[in-house]
Automatic annotation (TrEMBL):
Gene Ontology MF term list: cytochrome-c oxidase activity
Residue runs in coiled coils: none
Protein name: cytochrome-c oxidase
Family: Belongs to the cytochrome c oxidase subunit 3 family.
Stretches the record annotates as Disordered: 1-29
Biological process (GO), any one: aerobic electron transport chain
Organism in which the protein naturally occurs: Paraconexibacter algicola
Membrane-topology descriptor: Multi-pass membrane protein
Superkingdom assignment: Bacteria
Enzyme Commission number(s): 7.1.1.9
Segments forming domain Heme-copper oxidase subunit III family profile: 36-208
Comp. bias regions, Low complexity: 1-11
Pfam families given in the database record: COX3
Lineage: Bacteria, Bacillati, Actinomycetota, Thermoleophilia, Solirubrobacterales
Length: 208
């Protein structure tokens, strides 16, 4: 007598790939690694700036009198012009991104080059301010905080210029398109963060 066929146990057929663990997440529920990495990096940078601002506000609270010692003055007007230059670079960057998404490659290249030059101008004016400001970081606590905060921001501007320079070079080589612009958006988010952070630095250090 023939032995009865034994039915295959469920989940053990030929089509079973022996998947272990939870099923993979849907694409819509996962952030792109590049975007997530940039956002996490910005959060960590906010914490670093927060430490410097904590020292700044501590000095403002415990000391008597004006923010800067008598005889030392900050170039508020020049820094205001420099602020306008940096904020303009955010506008030109947005214009460049919009032009790229619309298929306007000439506008994209001009916008990126303008953004880079505006950022470079900001950094040049900032360095020139250090040369002529009249006090050093070790002269007093206020000087240490001033150079610390503005220098930290200047370092971020320098990094941003490196990123913008790479994007600008690739733009003139035709590496981006209306459907392929992630390499522009990620550095753009960083540059907008640098601009927003400068507004906070300028307001607290130069104006308040």
């Amino acid at each position: 007598m023939e032995a009865a066929a034994i039915p295959a146990a469920p989940g053990h057929g030929h089509d079973d790939h022996h998947h272990h663990g939870p099923p993979p997440a849907n694409r819509s529920s996962r952030a792109e690694p590049a975007m997530l990495g940039m956002l996490l990096f910005i959060i960590s940078e906010i914490m670093i700036f927060g430490a410097f601002f904590t020292a700044y506000f501590f000095i403002r609270v415990v000391q008597d009198g004006a923010w800067m010692p008598e005889g030392d003055h900050l170039p508020v007007a020049i820094a205001g012009v420099n602020t306008a230059i940096l904020l303009s670079s955010s506008l030109t960057l947005h214009w460049a991104e919009t032009a790229l998404k619309a298929g306007n490659h000439r506008g994209f290249r001009v916008g990126m080059l303008t953004t880079f030059l505006l950022g470079l101008t900001f950094l040049f004016i900032q360095v020139n301010e250090y040369v002529h400001i009249g006090f050093a970081p070790h002269d007093h606590a206020q000087g240490s905080i001033f150079y610390g905060l503005t220098g930290l921001h200047g370092a971020h501007v320098f990094i941003g210029l490196l990123l913008l320079g790479i994007v600008t070079l690739r733009a003139f080589r035709g590496h981006f398109s209306a459907d392929d612009h992630r390499g522009v958006e990620i550095p753009g988010i960083y540059w907008h963060f640098v601009d927003v952070m400068w507004i906070v630095v300028y307001t607290t250090i130069y104006v308040v």
